[in-house]
Amino acid sequence: MMKKTGVLLSVMVMTYALSACSGGSAGNGGSSGNGGDETTPATTVQTEDGQTNADGSEELVPEPGAKLIIWEAKEQQAFLEEMGKQFTAKYNVPVEFQEVGGGDQRNRLTTDGPAGIGADVLAIAHDQLVEAVAAGLFLPNDFYAEVTKKNFLPSAVEAVTIDGVLYGYPRNMETYLLYYNKSIVKPEDLASWDSIKAFSKQFNEPKNNKFGFMFLANDLYFVNSFVNGYGGYIFGQNGTDPTDIGINKPEFVEGMKFYQSLHDILPIKATDATADVKTNLFQTGKLAINMDGIWQLGNFTSEKLGFEVGAATLPPMPNGKSPLPFAGVKSYFVSSFSQYPNAAKLFIQMLTTEEALSKEFEMTGIIPARNGMEDDPAINKNDVAKTFLEQFKTAQTMPGIIEMRAVWTPVTAALEPIWNGADVQKTMDKAAADLKIAIEQQGK
């Protein structure tokens, strides 16, 4: 976008000059969006897909007769309907919420999209993006690309970028940390894995289902943090190269040996440490330190549990390096079948402003993946939420390649034997061989 310089003229002259030099549109690659949240200056000039403001910036204009459908889980309904009302009041575009869970949206769009009854705006996790893009389901995040890159965590932006093309509009990240019962556990007990082990050994009463520390020992999603702390990886090139399988390499094996050592302080079957069991023990005061996810933020409160709940980031591994917990990135996307892509992009932009994300945190407990949200008053007064923001800094986005779907079965099959004392190297060698076969079969 060319910018005029010189003496400040009247609004009429400025409007004419901008109209003469303006040639941008929503489909021009997107770097023309302004660097902050959208505002609406009084003086604007209409362009092909948008309007040029008096300061030379551009913003989108909804298509004539636009109306939007958004798919999301029920937990988000109240927030999205409230934001829909605001959007309708500002742009005269109706917004309809339809309850469709994140796990169902991609598959449903493949049929409902071509039929003209699908959503315009969707909200799914990043690990579904590769398949969605391959199927041509989403439009790139073009107009607001630079705004997104500026305002959101780099790891979140990277997670919704495929082959250099940004598709998603990040909303929040999901990872895990250590919740703890402040009436039982002192901060120094959480300073290292050695201190956690020492605390647990004196606290444990397995016969009475009383444990110092617990995690989902039969779930790679949680186990992987230990592996990453030793430099291990599932696939090479930051999770993008399925020909480089790393699950039986020395670093991965060392991480699995550490995982195996935790059986000393959690002397139960790995399969018995279920989410329901763990949650119940923590809620009833029989579990002191609970490695769990951000989705428990609204459940693990002092008001609900009757004791003060604390949170701590995962302590360094014995080698001094930080564990890198898996992270999922939940983002908004615009359907490629939408008849109103401008309106859809505008609505998402409204949903991802600081003000909207602050409201969403208050209404749903979702912690935004937007830069600077640690200064938000609602988040700043919530110590657990602030700790999650710290944990996000070392979280590693889960590989989003299709081959990741083949990983879970062979690795999960290896966890229980290793937990029970099996030779780690031999067990992971078999898992790697099984994974290679599964990937080959997946490609047929």
Automatic annotation (TrEMBL):
Protein name as annotated: Arabinogalactan oligomer/maltooligosaccharide transport system substrate-binding protein
Tell whether Transcription regulation is among the UniProt keywords.
Answer: no
Compositionally biased residues, Polar residues: 40-55
Question: Taxonomically, which superkingdom?
Answer: Bacteria
PANTHER family xref list:
MALTOSE-BINDING PERIPLASMIC PROTEIN, MALTOSE_MALTODEXTRIN-BINDING PERIPLASMIC PROTEIN
* Cellular component, GO annotation: ATP-binding cassette (ABC) transporter complex, substrate-binding subunit-containing
Question: Which taxonomic lineage is given here?
Answer: Bacteria, Bacillati, Bacillota, Bacilli, Bacillales
Ranges annotated as biased composition (Gly residues): 24-36
- What is one process in the GO biological process aspect for this record? maltodextrin transmembrane transport
